[in-house]
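Re: beginner question about structure tokens

> Can someone show what the tokenized structure looks like for a real chain? I only ever see the sequence side.

Sure, here's an example I had lying around. Input first:
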Amino acid sequence: MADKTLFEKICDKDIPATLIHEDEHCVAFHDIAPQAPLHILVVPRQPIPRLALATPADATLLGHLLLTAAKLACDAGLAQSGYRVVINNGPHGGEAVPHLHVHLLAGRQLQWPPG
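And the corresponding structure tokens:
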């Protein structure tokens, strides 16, 4: 059996975290190294290592992650001012934990191109 990722441990409550959202498909919490005034991670309970390894069977879950990020942004009053949703894939994409997750960034003017 492979070791659990950090995010699996958070989802399983092996590591304590202050969850701001939790449902049967995902959890959400503030990033410990925020890159914007609001930086929330939306993490699926199902461990998919990265977007490139998702399959058509994961489509409903992937949609749920995006809709959850949008709801959290709306709940934070950011629907009008805007926000960014990011999924990093692989080392050159900025992936730090091999467990697919969505970054919700907001609260300041975000630049383009990123990185």
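Each token stands for a local structural state, so reading them left to right follows the chain. The longest strand covers residues 38-44.
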